[in-house]
Automatic annotation (TrEMBL):
Domain of life of the organism encoding this protein: Eukaryota
Segments of this protein annotated with the region Disordered: 83-103
Span of domain UBA: 5-46
Name by which UniProt lists this protein: UBA domain-containing protein
Amino acid sequence: MAAQEVNQGLLSDLVAMGFSEARATMAILSSGNSGIEEAINWIVDHENELDTDEMPSDSVDIEIESPDPSQVSEQVKLKAQELRDHARRKREEEEKKVDHEREKERIRAGKELLGAKRVAEEHERKRFIDQRKAEKEEVKRARERIRQKLHQDKLERWGRLHPQKQSPISTDSGISRAPEIKIPVSQKAIPLSATSAEESMRECLRYLKIRHQDDDYRVKRAFQTLLTYVRNVIVSPGEEKFRRIRLNNPAFQERVGRFKEGIQFLELCGFEKSDNFLVLPSHKIDITRLNVATAALLAALTNPFFGLLSRYEWRKTSNIDVQSLLSV
């Protein structure tokens, strides 16, 4: 059988501690030459065995003197315990060091995560500010277009009422002066209510606002709901659910159906009554008309003077039914 090698350094340390060479050799061989702590543990665990001071039966490559039959002294036990305590403290220090490194890594990762979150929030804030700025610019441009359109409408109304007179309305404040309007057609030939689909929609919304001017909240909510219906069709004309409205739907009745002008406005947009629904057939979708409806609704929502220009005509023609607009 091949000779087992004994770690000379471990053997010398154990002998110096007072262990017999035979017992030290047995401890080293039995613990697999793994270390002095393991060898001492083995000695302590086998201190009461009778044959532990006998040399191992396997041949070794060192010279062994006669075994010392003395038992492990109290001093050796204390030394062994001291070594165990030292090893334990060393393990605890290493564990503390590992825990400290882990905590440092956790803090570093937390700081990186917090930094990334702040960067993302800053980007989101800038994006929101840019979006709001763009929306304000768009609203400003829309208001300017509406203001010019209202001014032009006023000129056209004056021309229809007084075809032989020059309009006294000023065209200053950045709006180019419109040419003198002379329409050689009698007032009866062109009804005051509307001359186009766009004007029909605007008049429909004006009547809704004037007839219910004491319920401004519900009027604005109706305008917003109508705008949602129209925009949904523009964005997704192929979606049937956006082109089919159930008339007895409680939400629809509360927001739009309670106003006959609301239903008439949808009919001006192309919706048709079918059984208990308002339906916009796919072959009758007119994006241009829907864009006109969107502009009219935006004017009604954003222009504080919307409906005021026609209040005089409204008082004169309060008995006119808006249904007549649908023939345009």
